Amino acid sequence: MLEAARCIVVRDLLVAWRRRSDVATTLLFFVIVTSLFPLGIGAEPDLLRSIAPGVIWVAALLSCMLSLGRLFAADHADGTLEQLLLSSEPLGVIAAAKALAHWLVSGLPLVLIAPLIALQYDLAAPLYPVLALSLLLGTPVLSLIGAIGAALTLGLRGGGVLLSLLVLPLYVPVLIMGAGSVDMAAAGLAADGQLLLLAALLVVAAAFAPWAIAAALRISME
Amino acid sequence: MLEAVDLACERGGRSLFRGLSFALRGGELLRVAGPNGSGKTSLLRILCGLLPPTTGAVRWEGTEVRRLREEYSKQLVYIGHAAAVKDDLTAAENLRIACTLAGHRVSPRRIQQALDSFELADLPVKRLSQGQRRRAVLARLVVSDSLPLWLLDEPYAALDAAAGRLVEELIDGHVARGGAVVFTTHQDTRVRASRVIDLDA
Predict the structure, then answer these.
(1) Which CATH number describes the domain made up of B28-54+69-196?
(2) Å from B47 to nearest chain A CA?
(3) Which of A165, A158, A162, A152 is nearest to A76 (CA)?
(4) DSSP letter at B187?
(5) How confident is residue B201, by pLDDT bands cut at 50, 70 and 90?
(6) How many CB atoms lie within 10 A of CB B151?
(7) Who among B86, B100, B103 is closest to A78 (CB)?
(8) Per the CB < 8 Å rule, is A4 touching B101?
(9) Which residues of A170-186 are buried (b: 16+ CB within 10 A; e: fewer)?
(10) Which ipTM was obtained for this model?
């Protein structure tokens, strides 16, 4: 079972590596959006410090959405998705592996680069780990929930718009808790509450989303 | 082995076929004939469980395939219309991934043999021609001799005469071993089908 899952993750990472420009697009989008805010708003340290968590989280969310459309579309177009549906392992396992690969390619880089971005907002040093941890817990949830939407809108015309309409409402709790945890820490309070809630969301999403993705894929492929 | 009972298929409000029943045992070769748009691909997708039939059922060893799911998938190779290869990976990588996902272990040596028999170079698939791409997909048949059921949708499309003969040999060999094969084709082929289903009739 793990062998098939590992095979999918390695395959998707290999494809992503050979198409580096696609991966760079989402990361670059994140960097550009978050870098434009300080330029547009002006160098008011207090203001920048207070908007930093929200801006970074919104940018992370949008750049995740940017790459969702490709999650199953490429496999659908070249026919490999049919073979994934006919694989010898439960489709839920395959779906979980696809979501994991998506996170490794488009979520993890954001987590790693976020502290560097936070420099531009003069975020206090103790907040860096909180920001990184909130993204580390939150971005996998974005990948898992987004994959359900991507599977449902597979092969539809105007699927991109529909995908954002479907998925954004479900992203809102993650956004509120993610940005909220950094705000709490900035106010000198403990951020544990929000981070634990994020972790709980991640556990629930990891347990249920793969089966929802699998069901959605079966419907889309009929 | 494989049994279809009273299958009917509707696509986009149009009835493609109805009342289709047949049973296929090991060592039998079933050819699905019919003009374009008569539902050959839909029938094959129904047989492999990707598409639910409008009415009727497909059974494998007596159990419905939609219930067996991956237990049934383990028994078959489905080669569809689409290439089902990743453009950025080489033919060898594609074949290895396809075998791992299908759940059978194949040694690197056998993969190399399969690619050699189809004369495929170790290049990313996007640099290959349409026919070579098709060869890269069909190379899977060489290493799938242990799977009892082959479902092949237009296996000869885009192939040259030599590769076509190789596929014929593979199909013949599989049937002689006691495997079952269902295939569709428009081309003339030397393999002798034990049964023909004409969807036009």
Answers:
(1) 3.40.50.300
(2) 12
(3) A152
(4) S
(5) low
(6) 23
(7) B86
(8) yes
(9) ebeebbebbbbbbbbbb
(10) 0.89
